[in-house]
Amino acid sequence: MADYRAPTEEQMFVLETVADLTELAGLPGFEDATPALAAQILAESARLAQEAFAPLNAIGDREGARFSDGAVTLPDGFAQAYRDYSAAGWNGLSADPAHGGQGLPFVLSVAVQEQFTAANMAFSLCPMLTLSAVEALQAHGDEAMKALYLPKLISGEWTGTMLLTEPQAGSDVGALRTSATPAGDGSYRIRGQKIFITWGEHELADNILHFVLARLPDAPAGSKGISLFLVPKYLLDAQGRPGARNDVRAIAIEHKMGIHASPTCTMQLGESGDCVGWLIGAPHGGLAAMFTMMNHARINVGNQGVAIAERAWQDARAYAQERVQFGPIIGHADVRRMLMTMHSLTQAARAIVYANAAAVDRAHKESDPERRAYWKRRADLLTPISKAWATDAGIEVTSLAIQVHGGAGFIEETGVARHYRDARIAAIYEGTNGIQAMDLAGRKLRLDNGTAMGELEGAIARDVACWRDGGARAKLEAALAMLGRARAAMLAHDPTGLGAAASPFLALCGGVVGGWLLGRQAEQAAARLERGEGDPAFLRARQASADFFLTQRLPLALAQIAAIEAAAEQIACI
């Protein structure tokens, strides 16, 4: 297996051409986010990802997280790597400077996290959940709570988790039973059980802050009766330091297909009746608060699809260059087709996720309220596409990596099968990809009478009209026409038809958006070549990837129109 090398040149190109980093640096608070600083940051995070996280990947997969007497033990080296990560300040890259963050754009944090995730996906889940916890607390915590907890989360000294799922309440969050009873002193006593809790127990940090969904005694039924609580593993003493152990404990960890070094815990809260928590936000407003955390996490999960695809692509290309069968197999046309498929899917997924993250940045930082609303609609629309399309791409790319390796890919010792096993979970957690498709088709498509989709289609049309590559322009114009046809079909469906067509519709949307963003990069590459800027080989490779995607992958996405327009009765016999 090849050593992981962070694709910093490609990441910078996407930050500049898709995220418009130079424009972001012109927004209030982002003045320091210049391309020069971004390049320095990515170079430094790449060093830690390559030297500290990547060497632990195979060890973590082989040894996994181990559970005994309520404690989780991780393989040697994990604790030191996490200390190095926290000490360097990576957790606070995009966090509020008022609480110790650096205040840089979210999209730059996404690029950094891509590197750590590609190096070691199971390990990266720990800081990923903490970043989402920071987002939720910044948005919904009161000032005292933020002052007490945010600096430690931002520094990485403490980590965060999301306690949502219960045995009877997975996607149906409204069915949860965990209770929260007022204690009379501003705190609550939490009681219940949560399952599938990522990094719910470990010893890498001094404390773990659990963000727990529970019901107050007077809560209405369903999702409208859910509140969000902060439940620390260790209660804080008078100096704000971890003190007595709270009554929240792991009672088991799961034995999983992949991400073996990520402890996925069953958590028991209040077994002795003394699990202490504090309300975050308004009573019964927990779902809205949790969605702040989840939407942040969904973009980062989409980023996992990008990262694991990048790692698998690097390994497959290296193997194809070395493996000899009638000559190096990279010389065989079908192998090259697979490698180009992997590379173009990875690049399209990266472009979608970075565009999504940059839209989040603009939604927060634009000075004009109408512009902030515009970019919020764009971010909301792209989030289910990022999460689902990019993670589906990660699964396809890691599967192709096994195929490129042939029989060796099916053998664990080569390591490439690990990427496929790790990638598979990303389509499931943080809302299955089917739920993402329903969110896109059932909610985001219809918000404000379809304003967000109309704005996106308009932005694509205006951009494409300026392209000098007539062939690419024609392909995207035809794709936009098909997207409009698909949108009309979705709006005409009844609820059953909508559900049946939702996943094909998301696949079509992802293909069109990915094709647009790759074509946009190809146009920028051509302009740089004309000006004599940059590495010609790198820029021509960007053009080749876009041409391949528009020729071979975009038509597959557009073919989803048949499923989108099909009658719902086709699924009635199941």
Question: Mind explaining what this structure looks like?
Answer:
The protein has 574 residues and is an alpha+beta fold. It is built from 18 helices and twelve strands. The strands form three sheets. Strands 3, 4, 5, 6, 7, 10, 11 and 12 form an eight-stranded mixed sheet that branches. It has a two-stranded antiparallel sheet with strand order 1-2. A two-stranded antiparallel sheet has the order 8-9. The longest helix is centred in the middle third of the chain and has 37 residues.
List the helices and strands and how they pair.
Blueprint (H helix, E strand, L loop, with lengths): L7 H10 L3 H4 L10 H19 L3 H7 L2 E3 L2 E3 L4 H10 L18 H14 L1 H20 L2 H13 L2 E6 L15 E4 L5 E11 L8 E8 L12 E6 L1 E3 L5 E4 L2 E6 L10 E6 L5 E6 L5 H37 L10 H33 L3 H37 L10 H9 L8 H12 L6 H14 L5 H23 L2 H37 L4 H23 L2 H5 L9
Parallel strand pairs: 3-6
Antiparallel strand pairs: 1-2, 4-5, 5-11, 5-12, 6-7, 7-12, 8-9, 10-11
Helix pairs in contact: 1-3, 3-6, 6-7, 6-9, 6-10, 7-8, 7-9, 9-10, 9-11, 9-12, 10-11, 10-16, 10-17, 11-12, 11-13, 11-14, 11-16, 13-16, 14-15, 15-16, 15-17, 16-17
In angstroms, what separates the terminal alpha carbons?
A: 43 Å
Radius of gyration: 23 Å
Mean pLDDT: 95
List the helices and strands in order.
HHHHEEHHHHEEEEEEEEEEHHHHHHHHHH
Helix content: 55-70%
Tally of contiguous helical segments: 18
Class from helix and strand fractions: alpha+beta
> Mind summarizing the main beta sheet?
8 strands, mixed
Write down how many β-strands occur, each being a DSSP E stretch of 2 or more residues.
12
Shape designation: globular
Low-confidence stretches: none
Question: Beta-strand percentage?
Answer: 5-15%
